[in-house]
Amino acid sequence: MEQFKGTGVALITPFKEDKSLDLEALENLVEYQIENGIDYIVVLGTTAESATLTQEEKSLVKQTIVWQNKGRLPLVLGMGSNNTKALVDEIEATDFTGFDAILSVSPYYNKPTQAGIYAHFAEVAKASKIPIILYNVPGRTASNMEVETVAKLAKDFDNIIGIKEAKGDLVQAMDLIAATPDDFLVISGDDMITLPMVLAGGAGVISVIAEGFPKEFSQMVNLGLERKVDEAYQLHYKIAPAINIIFEQGNPAGIKAVFAHKDLCKNELRLPLLPVDESLNNRLLDLVNRLK
């Protein structure tokens, strides 16, 4: 589980102007993360626009990242659904060669009870041969995984090793850290409160902003893990303006604009998502120039 401490990134899926996959850009993005100190990569998460990819495209994305990574960083595969049986069937049919864990979002839209959430992940845990990181993001799923539910899952299933906690609630994050076993990973899913979560005992972050500014963000997280508080907060306040505007017009629109300004990929998204408008694009360009 040590391999998932530090800074993970939820990698985007780059597209060409005709909206087809840009696999060359994807290879370059993987290399960019490795060269700049990222600790692990999350593949086919929400930030990857996975909802708009075909199964064939998802396979190509996985193959490309595994090939380019060449075992250098741990890889986490995003797999989630609000249909428990469909997800279990998918897990049982998946070849996890090259992947070290699953990131699985809490069931979305149909708003299960806490008992339903527990039962869902119990089935996922029984089906999976690799470790599972839970993902709580109430702003997208419309339901919150309560601390008691997560703590029970952590206690009952050895292969549920952590949670990406993205409610944006520092009190809930601290309650999770207190309620779960010492080796259970409470990982920030909210870039702005990553540092206070780490200092409270969290394991690090799965970040969006970090893939655009990997050197700075991973250094901040490492300083936090080393308890070098003043130095860590200096970096936090340097990066904070980027966090404030990167999500202003949705994700991954902001981070794709950043990558375009860095000449790492084209600023292309698939509908229903659109690129950021000219005003935000110009502010993001200024941000990239200031953080060089």
Strand content: 5-15%
Oligomer: single chain
CATH architecture: Alpha-Beta Barrel
Count of distinct strands: 8
Kindly provide the radius of gyration, computed on alpha-carbon positions and rounded to a whole number of angstroms. Answer: 18 Å
Give the biggest sheet: 8 strands, parallel, barrel
Walk me through what this model shows.
Belongs to the DapA family. It is an enzyme of class 4 (lyase). Catalyzes the condensation of (S)-aspartate-beta-semialdehyde [(S)-ASA] and pyruvate to 4-hydroxy-tetrahydrodipicolinate (HTPA). The structure is a single chain. The protein has 292 residues and is of the alpha/beta class. The chain has one domain: Aldolase class I (TIM Barrel). It contains 13 helices and eight strands. It has an eight-stranded parallel beta barrel with strand order 1-2-3-4-5-6-7-8, surrounded by five helices. Helix 3 links the parallel strand 3 and strand 4. Helix 3 packs parallel to helix 4. The two termini are 33 Å apart. The model has no long low-confidence stretch (mean pLDDT 97).
What does this entry show, briefly?
By secondary structure, the chain is of the alpha/beta class. The chain is 47% helix and 13% strand.
Summary keywords:
single chain; 292 residues; alpha/beta; TIM Barrel; eight-stranded parallel beta barrel; 13 helices; 8 strands; 13% strand
Reconstruct the topology from this structure.
Elements: E1 6-10, H1 23-35, E2 40-43, H2 55-69, E3 75-78, H3 84-93, E4 101-105, H4 114-127, E5 132-136, H5 138-141, H6 147-156, E6 160-165, H7 170-179, E7 185-188, H8 194-199, E8 204-207, H9 209-212, H10 214-225, H11 229-246, H12 253-261, H13 278-290
Parallel strand pairs: 1-2, 1-8, 2-3, 3-4, 4-5, 5-6, 6-7, 7-8
Helix pairs in contact: 1-2, 3-4, 4-6, 6-7, 10-11, 11-13, 12-13
